[in-house]
Design goal:
It is built from three helices and 16 strands. By secondary structure, it is mainly β. The strands form two sheets. Strands 1-2-3-4-5-6-7-10-11-12-13-14-15-16 form a 14-stranded antiparallel β-barrel. The protein has a two-stranded antiparallel sheet with strand order 8-9. A hairpin with a 7-residue loop joins β5 and β6. The longest helix is centred in the N-terminal third of the chain and has 19 residues. It starts with 8 loop residues before the first helix and ends with a strand. The relative contact order is 0.17.
């Protein structure tokens, strides 16, 4: 029996033919992870300033509102008590509200904050036998409560952590399940020292899988089946910001952010902010990896509110085929 001798170049040709397919498979891995996480409302940006920068606010946001993006940022308000409120009008008129209060703890040389965010809506129940409604109303809600602590470890490095409790109500008023779990955020901000440059790293919403309570009656197996557990929407964010221009009353801040998500492919976001007399701000940003809600813009105003330093921010995000998103944020210190 004679062996068939192949030309030496054929294996390399075969490998070359396989390479494009392998590359295509790798670029689509993020798409394969879509809708594989629970509690995904945590990915909705709360802060109006960060939203106006296209979501690239990880290295920029400071004060009590930073607990929703990078807990190390709360150190900017050391030595005072600060309060933060935010409201987001999400598509389908679904409201998302958030509040945070931070307080200096001199004995710890640290800043501590407590925060709460809530999203909820009601809709009419429909079934396969009642496609136009059963007459019952279903309530859906998400709630996350957190306590955060941050301190400076050097004159340039700040580290912060948040411990969060998440509760998701999937229609418990009509027998639906609820989901609850503990999550952790950890963040850092490093001041480079040139043109107010800052580098930040954040790991957000890290924790065990989240499993809805109870189960459902399977007509296939003839038994009650427990709901499947899904991972939380863990995100890794790498941010950078700097002031490329600052002269007289004018200052420009540029911000960039790379974001790796557990249930989506990587995203890249960039934005710029112009300040006049450190009182009036105009912002614009873009999420380069987004099919919808890519372009954002916003305004900011700093003033004394009843003798207290305060900031008011607004952001607009184009919804594309969805509704436009509007965000408002207010913070002030005592």
């Amino acid at each position: 029996m004679k062996l068939l001798h192949l030309p030496p170049i054929l294996p390399f040709l075969a490998l070359a033919l396989l390479l494009p397919r392998a590359a295509a498979a790798q670029t689509s891995l993020g798409d394969q992870r879509v809708a594989t996480s629970s509690g995904t409302f945590l990915k909705i940006g709360v802060d109006a300033r960060a939203a106006g920068l296209g979501g690239a606010g990880n290295a920029v946001i400071q004060g009590p509102g930073a607990v929703f993006s990078n807990p190390a940022g709360i150190l900017a308000e050391r030595g005072r008590t600060s309060v933060y409120f935010s409201y987001v009008r999400w598509p389908a008129d679904i409201p998302l509200s958030a509040v945070s209060v931070s307080q200096s703890i001199p004995s710890w040389d640290a800043q501590v904050a407590v925060s709460l965010a809530y999203l909820g809506t009601d809709f009419e129940e429909t079934t396969e036998f009642h496609p136009y409604g059963t007459g019952r109303t279903v309530s859906f809600s998400d709630l996350v409560a957190a306590i955060s602590v941050a301190r400076n470890f050097t004159d340039r490095l700040a580290i912060g952590m948040s411990f969060k409790y998440l509760r998701e109500d999937l229609g418990s008023d009509i027998g639906g399940p609820t989901t609850g779990g503990l999550l952790v955020d950890a963040g850092t901000v490093y001041s480079i020292g040139v043109r107010n440059a800052r580098l930040s790293v954040t790991l957000a919403d890290f924790g065990p899988d989240l499993r809805p309570s109870g189960g459902y009656d399977s007509h296939v197996q003839g038994t009650e089946v427990r709901y499947t557990a899904f991972s939380p929407p863990t995100q890794f964010r790498l941010g950078f910001s700097m002031d490329p221009f600052a002269r007289g009353p004018h200052r420009v801040t540029a911000a960039f952010q790379v974001q790796h998500q557990a249930d989506q492919e990587e995203t890249f976001r960039a934005g710029a902010e112009y300040w006049l007399h450190e009182r009036f701000a105009g912002r614009a940003g873009y999420d380069l990896s987004s099919d919808e809600m890519g372009l954002s813009a916003g305004l900011g105003f700093r003033a004394d509110l009843g003798g207290r330093p305060g900031t008011i921010d607004y952001a607009f995000t184009g919804g594309g085929f969805l509704e436009d998103v509007h965000r408002w944020s207010l913070s002030f210190g005592f």
